[in-house]
TrEMBL record:
UniProt-recorded Gene Ontology molecular function terms: transferase activity
Pfam families assigned: CoA_transf_3
Keyword Transferase belongs to the record: yes
Signal sequence bounds: none
Database matches in InterPro entries: CoA-transferase_III, CoA-Trfase_fam_III, CoA-Trfase_III_dom_1_sf
Name of the protein in its database record: Acyl-CoA transferase
Organism phylogeny: Bacteria, Bacillati, Actinomycetota, Actinomycetes, Micrococcales
Alphabetized UniProt keyword annotations: Transferase
Amino acid sequence: MNITGEGTLPSAFDVTGLAVTALSEAASAVALLAQRHGAESPEITVNRDLASLWFAGSFTPLGWELPPVWDAIAGDYRCLDGWIRLHTNAPHHRAAVLKVLGLEGDVSREEVMAAVVLWEGQALEDAVVAANGCAALLRSPQEWREHPQGRAVASEPLIGWGDPRAVLALQDGEASAQRPLAGVRVLDLTRIIAGPVATRFLAFYGAEVLRIDPPCWDEPSLEAELTIGKRCARLDLKSAAGLVELHELLAGADIFIHGYRADALDALGLSDAELAARYPSLINVALNAYGWSGQWANRRGFDSLVQMSCGIAYAGRAYFAQGGGLEDLSELKPHPLPVQALDHATGYLCAAAAVTAWGERLEGTVRNARLSLARTAVELMGSEPSDPDAPAPHVDGSLLLAEDTVWGPGQRLPSAVQITGVVSETDIPAQGLGWAEPHWL
């Protein structure tokens, strides 16, 4: 493994180190698969600068702008006894927050601030979660370690592998040393951001990725970033017809990657046990926010919320306040990571798990895998702070790749990973959600 570059993201934890490690794991899995197809000891090179920049975002529009990443009232708010983060990007999550706060309509941020400051943090978090919304109280690392969910997550493996089951071995006819995932069908039921990162990585090495979204779901600020390499279709899984079509897709898939909560899949008749019984050869890779055991296993969550819950945003506040002469940090806003590193790192680890499992599938063994943002956070929080004197990540502008999208022209970062003899590319440009039919090619 060769590591090049000097760039480092400033953080209370080694975010760039996490980026390099996660990408290295995914690349190593691809290199092993390439060896199976005749590659001779491929060398892997990971660039620190590019790894950091991919964690921030790989695409820059030229002559046009991406929509705002955050809803107008999403963010951190002072409550009676601390800070809380409200995640309101999805319309139904926004509606849940406003209902709890007794607000309605197109409210201002100031109105939300005035309502939140009347609540104790724990009571508000509980109320929003109970209303099927998304919120997270700011906790210290110590508070998270002592929290029942924090203890549960800490006891989980970084990648939780299921029990193996024997199936017929495969002849991987379409794949080659140059394109080790060619011919592999990946059914993608993931959104924001970890799962789409994983399937984007698989697509660049040859996998046929079919992403399925609900009829009315949109991610306008992320579609240029995360739909490249994929055919994107829509299905209403709450309808009988939509569920029938999903089962047809599952029957033809090799790898199923999803970010649905376990209880949501159970309600659709898609539990791990049911999928294994109906599709014994299918590799099932699952992602969630807060881990797969404990009382929060089915809690809705996102990277920014997990950072609040587990103490990352608390530690960041203290780290960046050093030298400021402040003794009481309670009035300072939480300070998250410079990028959504839990999402991106978990995505690349998910890709590594999927590729590893595919290699085993070719030999006649199927294993499922589970990952979570909260467990990735445990890994990150065991690292040291970044070097404050390290240079910021950068890339030579001449290396940026021109790309035409349906929204307009832009530039994409070159790959942060190089594997000798292996081609990383796609001929499917970013086209947004819902443009394709829900069928395999």
